């Protein structure tokens, strides 16, 4: 029986240990390498040519790896396993070329099944994330998917996002908006919820993508 060759990448050795143990319990899998960073995962994948890369996290570096592999070695399927359950992160991962997206709520058995599925050419989404997408995205008449844009933000939220994208701290934004720091954090939390972005850096990127700065 031909084994599915897998590379595992996560910054935490304990996570890599657990994933390797779970996968190697199944004789269908062979773990051919482990990496502790996105850059190392890319180089290892180029060297070992696995069938599947199981990639922890979903930051800019990891997405760059997914995109690079999708372009250079499209036969490699990537399963992203992350603590980030923001729908926008899922969209970015899929757009970059990921075949599977699971959160770290997934059990080891679920991850093993996902690796089986993507190695057979299927796409896999965390069921909770699929539910988030159903709730957050709305179908349009043209058949495309739309997300909340800048028009969904009120004037204060919009200005706060612009100031974040300009590099200001919460204290500096508070001075600009005549709010307390806690008040600014509440405004930014509402903006993140509406924009589908979970982190401050992502909010700045969202502002740039929507030509707010």
Notes on the structure:
- The chain is α/β, with parallel strands linked by helices and 213 residues long.
- It has 2 domains: 4-136, Rossmann fold; 150-209, Orthogonal Bundle (Arc Repressor Mutant, subunit A).
- Helix content is 53%, strand content 16%.
- The chain is built from 10 helices and 8 strands.
- A 6-stranded parallel sheet has the order 2-1-3-4-5-6, sandwiched between helices. Strands 7-8 form a two-stranded antiparallel ribbon.
- It is elongated, with a radius of gyration of 19 Å.
- 36% of the residues are buried.
- Residues 138-146 have low confidence and may be disordered.
Structural class: alpha/beta
- Overall helicity: 40-55%
For the record, what CATH class of the largest domain applies? Alpha Beta
CATH architecture designation of the largest domain: 3-Layer(aba) Sandwich
Enumerate how many helices there are, as a single number.
10
CATH topology of the largest domain: Rossmann fold
Alpha carbon gap, first and last residue: 55 Å
């Amino acid at each position: 029986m031909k084994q599915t060759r897998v590379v595992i990448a996560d910054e935490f050795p304990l996570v890599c240990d657990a994933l390797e143990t779970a996968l190697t319990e199944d004789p269908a899998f062979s773990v051919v390498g482990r990496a502790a960073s996105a850059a190392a995962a890319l180089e290892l994948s180029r060297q070992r040519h696995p069938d599947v890369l199981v990639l922890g996290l979903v930051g800019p570096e990891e997405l760059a790896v997914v995109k690079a592999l999708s372009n250079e070695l499209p036969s490699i399927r990537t399963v992203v396993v992350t603590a980030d359950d923001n729908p926008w992160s899922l969209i970015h991962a899929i757009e970059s070329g990921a075949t599977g997206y699971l959160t770290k709520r997934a059990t080891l058995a679920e991850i093993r099944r996902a690796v089986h599925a993507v190695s057979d050419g299927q796409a896999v989404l965390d069921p909770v994330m699929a539910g988030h997408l159903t709730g957050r995205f709305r179908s349009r008449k043209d058949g495309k998917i739309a997300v909340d844009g800048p028009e969904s933000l009120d004037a204060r939220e919009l200005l706060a996002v612009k100031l974040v994208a300009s590099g200001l701290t919460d204290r500096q934004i508070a001075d600009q908006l005549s709010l307390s720091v806690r008040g600014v954090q509440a405004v930014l939390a509402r903006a993140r919820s509406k924009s589908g972005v979970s982190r401050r850096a992502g909010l700045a990127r969202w502002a740039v993508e929507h030509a707010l700065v």
